[in-house]
Design brief:
Number of helices: 5
Radius of gyration: 28 Å
Number of strands: 19
Strand content: 25-35%
CATH topology of the largest domain: Deoxyuridine 5'-Triphosphate Nucleotidohydrolase, Chain A
Largest sheet: 8 strands, antiparallel
Length: about 300
């Protein structure tokens, strides 16, 4: 069931599903949304971007605060934070649809599904596919939200804020992409050869930085659960490091094959090298012994 305008007003009054909205934006079965003064532009990179590296992804956007207006150039893609804050009840979902008037000008805005239980300020992409430049301003209407009731029986674990991958919950309009959250539940190999399973990616309460929660896939006496800042977890390393047993480019790398035992192989290699050195030493000592005996 799609909510009509009067029901949307009631939901806003009773559930506060939309904050900071214009009362004139409510239509027969939707509520318009508008862009704020905050936009993000993607910086040009001449190298391929590793989508598992949070530091690279977080730094690929340039934040711009619009004072009066922004010249939206032809073939340009930007991300705009909404003026409105969304707070979804657990029995309602919503869909953001582009404004028809903008679509007919060649301005494409992404369709956005909003899950039950989501709360935050969304950031939407806008692409100018036309040959023209346009002047856009804070407060400009860019789309509308349609609310829809879902069937009874939804359990708490399916509510967006309770899901393991609710990575955009409580966003404030400054979050663009967290695609590296796709690696939750995957196995990564450390450059020293051991394998680890990512349990989750959490948020540091003080720094607000992403933190990887992971456990080793081998027995340890100290702890079987570890945390590490995501920027460090996915960071680059020197392939020529002496302790880089795998020869990989990152501190941890996603793997599917766990059969290779780099730690055992390295241990055998060290033991073999040690045996060779001891053999050389023994031969040298014997040679010296017989040399001294002849004297």
């Amino acid at each position: 069931m799609i909510f009509n305008g009067n029901d949307i007003k009631k939901l806003i009054e009773e559930k506060e599903i939309i904050k900071n909205y214009d009362g004139n934006f409510i239509g027969s079965a939707s509520c318009d949304i508008s862009m704020s003064s905050t936009i993000f532009k993607i910086k040009k990179s001449f190298n391929p971007i590793d989508l598992s590296n949070p530091e690279v992804i977080d730094n690929m956007y340039e934040k711009i605060e619009i004072k009066d207006q922004y010249i939206f150039k032809s073939q340009e893609c930007i991300f705009v934070a909404l003026n409105e804050k969304i707070k979804m009840p657990t029995n309602i979902v919503a869909h953001i649809r582009p404004r028809t008037s903008l679509s007919r000008l060649g301005i494409i805005i992404n369709y956005q599904h909003i899950n039950a239980g989501y709360e935050g300020v969304l950031t939407l992409s806008m692409y100018n596919s036309s040959p023209n430049s346009y002047i856009i301003k804070p407060g400009m209407r860019i789309g509308q939200i349609v609310f829809e009731e879902i069937t009874d029986g939804i359990t708490d674990d399916l509510v967006y804020g309770n899901e393991a991958l609710s990575v955009y919950q409580n966003e404030d309009g400054s979050v663009c992409s967290r695609i590296y959250y796709d690696y939750i539940g995957k196995v990564f190999r450390h450059f020293k050869g051991n394998y680890y399973y990512i349990e989750n990616i959490s948020l540091d309460s003080e720094t607000k930085e992403d933190v990887v929660v992971y456990r080793p896939l081998y027995a340890r006496d100290d702890s079987m659960l570890w945390t590490r800042p995501a920027k460090m977890f996915f960071s680059d390393i020197d392939v020529n490091r002496k302790d880089n047993l795998t020869g990989q480019k990152h501190r941890f790398e996603l793997v599917e094959d766990l059969s290779e035992d780099y730690v055992k192989k390295n241990k055998e290699k060290e033991e073999k090298a040690k045996a060779i050195e001891e053999d050389k030493k023994e031969k040298k000592e014997k040679k010296g012994f017989f040399k001294n005996k002849k004297k």
